[in-house]
Write a structure and sequence with these properties.
CATH topology of one domain: TIM Barrel
Number of strands: 16
Structural class: alpha/beta
CATH architecture of one domain: Alpha-Beta Barrel
Number of helices: 10
Keywords: Oxidoreductase
Distance between the termini: 45 Å
InterPro entries: AKR_Detox_Biosynth, NAD(P)_OxRdtase_dom_sf, NADP_OxRdtase_dom
Strand order of the largest sheet: 3-6-7-10-11-12-13-16
EC number: 1.1.1.-
Protein name: General stress protein 69
GO cellular component, one term: cytosol
Shape: globular
Order of helices and strands: EEEEEHEHEEEHEHEHEHEEEHHEHH
Radius of gyration: 19 Å
Length: 333
């Protein structure tokens, strides 16, 4: 068991439950799923290894796991249900909006009507083996703001009915984050954020409204793990090899050259005070705002150990944060 994290690496949730300011992202442990021939997962997985990694995270004090109804066409939720079940001391956040066929592992569309939301919530409850969903997040990033009112009305109803404890939006658009920030039960924004993408406008909205910033992509889809070289190519079933508009860190399955240069500019700074590169990337997020809660992905016990090990070292110092800003500015110039 880890020693208790420094106060700078704990956070109070919407229910006043204080947890380490680190969750585990469960996209990768869902295994392969597709849109036609395009991979949307991170390759093959071993479910027993995934369960062991989840148990290790809990042993090390991690209390929040983030998944989605479409990860692995539902398989990620099923693995969390198997590993955790209805434990009241573990917070599970899931998402809805993208439909998948669990038999074919194919994406079948995006939906946000009330009937779909309710069906998705019930399916997630069954897969996760929960009596209630701790946090249910809207997964459609660029959904029209004016049409989202009905979505969050439905979530308010589900909360009133005791199906969910709280809700949020997984979106990279500050205007969407702000639109529902004053609703009772709206507590989180999940958005891309890492040392390469500091998203000041989004953080401003989150801090102003007292929301929690759940940081997806905290390791830039693995780039900030340091394990990729210029000639390293991901597998055929890995989403990082897909030609998707939002896939900026990797091109044709290899590190995008512009991000490779940025990584080299900050590598040693992130490794300050004996941190690994991964731990430095997480420490950068904690230093960026007191509202941040990164959710790095994992597939193995070793990855969990490294991620959780960042808690003992806490945030980067203001001086190192300034040096990182200056190094990145020089690369972009």
């Amino acid at each position: 068991m880890l020693t208790k994290p420094n106060v700078t690496t704990t956070i109070n949730l919407w229910n006043n439950y204080e947890i380490p300011r680190l969750g585990m992202g469960c996209w990768a442990i869902g295994g392969p799923f597709y849109a036609g021939d395009t991979p949307l997962g991170w390759g093959e997985v071993d479910d027993d290894v995934s369960v062991a990694a989840i148990h290790r995270a809990i042993e090390l004090g991690i209390r929040l796991f983030d998944t989605a109804s479409n990860y692995g066409a539902g398989h990620s939720e099923e693995i969390l249900g198997r590993a955790i079940g209805n434990r009241s001391d573990i917070v599970i956040a899931t998402k809805f909006g993208f439909a998948t066929d669990p038999e074919t592992k194919q994406a079948t569309g995006a939906f946000a009507d009330p009937a779909f939301i309710r069906r998705s919530a019930e399916t997630s409850l069954r897969r996760l083996k929960r009596d209630r969903l701790d946090l249910l997040q809207f997964h459609l990033n660029d959904f029209p703001p004016e049409q989202s009112d009905a979505v969050f009305d439905t979530l308010e109803d589900l909360r009133s009915e005791g199906k969910i404890d709280a809700f949020g939006w997984s979106t990279d658009f500050p205007d969407r984050a702000a639109r529902h920030a004053e609703r009772r039960g709206f507590v989180t924004i999940q958005h891309t954020m890492n040392v390469f993408e500091p998203v000041p406008d989004m953080i401003s909205v989150i801090e102003r409204h007292g929301l929690i910033s759940i940081n997806r992509g905290p390791l830039a889809m693995g780039l900030l793990s340091g394990k990729f070289r210029a000639d390293t190519k991901v597998g055929d079933k890995d989403v990082r090899g897909a030609s998707l508009d939002w896939m900026v860190y990797f091109k044709d399955g290899r590190i995008a050259p512009e991000f490779a240069a940025r990584l080299e500019a900050v590598r040693e700074l992130l490794r300050s005070d004996g941190r690994t590169l991964t731990q430095g990337a997480l420490a950068w997020l904690w230093a960026r705002s007191p509202r941040t809660l990164p959710i790095p992905g994992f597939r193995t016990v070793a990855q969990v150990d490294e991620n959780a090990g960042a808690l003992a070292k806490g945030p980067l110092s203001p001086a190192v944060m300034m040096e990182i800003d200056e190094a990145l500015a020089q690369v972009r110039a």
